[in-house]
Predict the 3D structure of the following.
Amino acid sequence: MSSTPHHQPGKCAIRGTCGSKGRWGPQLPCPYNGPPEEVTDNEFRSLLTSVCGPEIAESAVCCTSEQVETLQANFQQAESIISTCPACRNNFRSFYCTFTCSPDQSTFLDVTSTQTTSTGDVAVKSLDFYVAEKFGKGFYDSCKDVKFGATNGYAMDLIGGGAKNWTGFLQYMGDERPGLGSPFQIDYPPAYSSDLPNGVTPLNPPARSCADSDLGSRCACVDCADVCPALPPPPPPPLGEPNTCNVGELSCLSFILVLAYSLAVFAFFSGYSWMRWKRKTRKYERVPLSGDTSSVQAPSSNGSNHRHSRLIGATSLSGHDGEDSTGGLSDSRILGLGRGQSLLDPLEVLQPRHYRLNTIIRRSFYRLGRFCAKYPWVTLAMTAAFIGLLNFGWTQFQVETDPVRLWVAKTSETKAQKEFFDEKFGPFYRPQQIFVTSHPEHDNHPKGGVSPVLSLEHLKYWFKVEEEIRALRSTPNGYGLEDVCFKPAGEGSPCVVQSIGAWFGYDLSRYDEDSWREQVIACAERPSECLPDYGQPLGPKYILGGIPDSDDKKRWLDSKALVVNYILSNSNDPKEVAKAEEWERALRVYLAEQKKWVGVEAGLDIAYSTGVSLEEELNASTNTDFKIVAASYVTMFLYVSIALGGGFSNAGLWNAAGNQGGTWRSTLNLRGLFIGSKAMLGLFGICLVLVSISTSVGFFSMIGVKVTLIIAEVIPFLVLAVGVDNVFILVHELDRQNSLHGPKAASNEDSNGNSNTLGTTPMSPSSQSHITLDPDSQSMVRSGGLSPEERVARTLAKMGPSILLSSITETVAFALGALVPMPAVRNFALYAAGSVFLGAVLQVTAFVAAMTLDLRREEDNRVDCLPCIKIPTKIALPLDTPPSQRKHGVLSRFMRRYYAPFLLRPVVKGIVIAIFSGLFIASIISIQHIELGLDQRLALPSDSYLVPYFDAVDKYLEIGPPVYFVSTDVNVTARTGQRHLCARFTTCDDLSLANTLEGERKRTESSFIAEPAAGWLDDFFQWLDPRIESCCRVRKRDPTVFCNPRDSDRLCKPCFQDRKPEWNITLHGMPEGEEFMRYLKQWLQSPTDEDCPLGGKAAYSTALALNDDGVVASHYRTFHAPLKTQQDFINALAAANRIADDISKRTGTTVFPYSLFYVFFEQYAHIVGITQEILGLGLASVLLVTAVLLGSWRTGTIVTSVVALTVVNVMGVMGIWGIWLNALSLVNLVISLGIAVEFCSHIARAFMSAGVGLPVDHAASGKDRDERVWMALGDVGPSVLSGITFTKLIGISVLAMTRSKLLEIYYFRMWLTLIVSGALHGLVLLPVILSLTGGPGFTEIDTDEEWMSSAIRRHDQEYAPFRADSDDEDSD
């Protein structure tokens, strides 16, 4: 029943006070439907004027002085929250003054129920307040955007419960509750005319707008979007911008590439088909090429023209330098000659060219080989001394484990900014974060998803866990949470713990199955009503995760996760950090134990991270794959030892087993098993590789380059795979030298009955530098063959240039990785380059000496691995086949007989070009889809507890990381500097720091800023506002003395009361200079409490860096939007830098952004350019080195192009296989470039040294190149395949079993791609291109007799002449 029967102007609805509910409760108004009373008391009139304005004070009112005093006290509480926006403040005051004192109360108020108070009087229990929509909406709009910087939130969160519309706003203020709520219930019925009680007219005065021009209304940009200046349009983010040109699903570039490739392939095969058709219709005379040796023994004596009977291998013994060599003879004379003819008539053939640099290099390696072979023990002693000297650097050995120092460059701008921030404001807090979800095994969610985590049982259980965490003590020093936590109000104040427990006061005893739900909803809707003990509102986005995206207020109950944060103090003092780390380890141990039982006991699951977790887990990840990495090494060790011990040597088991008519049983003789084995030599080669790594570590440790744990895992694997290749090549070539010049070679006849006398023939690297055997060498010639020392020297002279080529190129390519500024990657590149270089040095010295000793052992019939045991000659079984007649191994015969002839067919060449062109096009398309970033989960063991934690962060966290905009080089004690920073005063710069941040917040999609900025300068000036009497206060008797919060109001007055000029919103009355600093220091000591929420101690004590002269630096704090992907983090950093740069340019100050993750993501702003620069420089170095050492710019360009195609192919697979571009993949691309050279360099070197030497434009030059490709594949193809490819492939395959996703993705996947791509490009594409456009070769034949023997051996292969160049259809 209504207690307001009369609704008419001049009638009240309530007046005066009639007691309270309880002894200490607020006073309640009395129902009163009588007329208003005139204000006769001057004191009351003055009070009413100061609180509600002269308009109300000049008329009769329905309120008493006691009511106005209560109203004044309530206004003081709200003033500190909304006073920054005059429109909101004045609407708020007008609203409640009209409600309390208007003489026409009854026209919009209707008392609906009453109650009896503690004094026995009747007081209002509830009433209806009729408000017109226009005024209500205007009132709400004037306040909805007002910020409360101390909490990075809105005033509406505090005065309106975070209301989203005007009805919710008014209803929140009308709900009965203490604080800013009402002492009785005020309802706001819809103000529809048909439902209104008789005589009721909804309250509808004109509402002030925050955009009005008068100073009593206009608000600042940060509080009113309508007055904000327009910011310039933002540039697109660096990542994620969709292609502006597409054809269907393909980008325009991809479409053009696919179309061009399709047309090219169609044209090629159409042309080829037409040519075949023309051949069928054409009659021609064909003279078959003869492979019979008669042409060698009986050449044409009359120089007749045999254009179609040229044997493969026409060459000569002398020539000249030059890219294009020509002789003086006619084509007919040239084409009628074979190798035998050139021996018999060397003056009538084309002279193959010689390359002086090659001669110098070969001569140098020959002399080096002679020295090492002649003095093996001296060589080993010298290398041991050199190695020992460098290994002294191990005394300076240090391992770097700090993630920042590992992954952030020393010259990094963000690193310097982080150090500045840590120095001036203190390091960022140490968060300990826990996600609590329903356990999957105990989850009965009907749709198979994750059930909501909130239930009374779950809360009770978790509150017990939190109670135990609060009581947790560390060992050995017994630190507790209170010893290490962050206390914003200073020592003795509560710790910052962000948990849902704060909404319940960590006590559920007062809640039942229904009331707990109501409490969650109430606190989520109105965080200011559920303040934690540290006094700052705790919004739901901080403590709930996986909140459903809906407007239903019950959505909070369906949250999928609880988010708990324990914030610990951080410090630059190592002792304080050690205290925090000790407690964090105790927490980690506790949570690890709790995780085992929380599912069984409560059906919950937890994912957690502590301050020490990431560094510990990154360090631990290097040990999780020890067995896998060790198994990979052991596998390669065994393979190399077995392969060198017999697998690929001419005297070995594999090749012997490949003999025609031979069987394994017949070849496993004593000599092959015990003497011919090279297992000890192979093990020595592996040890040299490991020693090169150790020496590299010693050297770089000596000069201060720290080791990283990833270096310890990967460098041995990399260098072993690279270094073993040279071992294979040297051993393979030594076998060849033994077959030509060994002790049994001279006494054997060739297959045609010709006797070979090789013993006294000197080695001739070139016709210009004739090297003769010295007397010592002459005395060491045995049985007419060359001495072991001479054979070893020839081996190094032959393969040394090839090793030099690959080693220099790899070293330069790896060293270029040091250009990457990230320390972990730079150190990795330096250690790799050093290890490869030192490995090559040791292989051409110490290993050569070891080969000599092993060769002496073998020829002395001593057992491998047990050289002290000698098998007597009388029981030593002879070799099953004389060396000069021994066949090539399985791989060599396959290469010579089948693979090379097939590959060099014209149609096959065309298919190869087409396939690799297609791979190139596909790779270019795929490269466009490579993402940037490095998911930190990949650096962790797959079973690490941090993996589910990071998954939970991505899935559940509703708020992004904090970001600070730091301002330096600005004098905030002067008015100009203040205008650059402030926002809430009329003379602030339109695009000041605070205004710009607010404008950027409104376009989160481009700025990634989601929360209002905490602006210290505006809050400081608001703290000085004399209208907020409970904030800045000084002694009445001595204004130089500040009052503390406990001082009586009788003794104190507002700081700026009666000040001239007075405080105003134009900044004119604000302090400057020394006065500014005096008030500022007091503000930073003032507590933040209910009486004065603007106190600076809790919110801003760490936001300013002060010295004796003033403010050195300060920051404005805000938050990023939730960042879920690596792309989000990269774009957020780019946006923050853009915003800071814009502010700096507009204000002339220095502003930079800082967030904890920035230092790790700065690399992505430059990594694409760095990748292009390093790979470009790498390819340029490859071109330079190969062109110079190969003696042909054309061949060097071909090798460089194939290497580039290999790297492009690897990058293409990156886009398909989920390998992102980051510092790790970049250094792997550099490694790919270096190793790709290894796949190509030996083939290219063998091709160039074949030395047939026909002119480039000669009619038979194509056959010349085909023959040289055939010889190159036959000579070094098996070594490339078995030594390079198989070694790497076997070692890499073991890594497939790794548990580390980082090793799997960035090493197993990338290196497997590199091996397969490198082998295909080096053994398939490169020979084809060399056969088409390779440069002219140069002679490298050691002796005339060896050259002749080589020709005979080639003939002995029963290899038919090249039919690929004939017109026969079968050749296709």
About this structure: The CA atoms of residues 269 and 275 lie 10 Å apart.
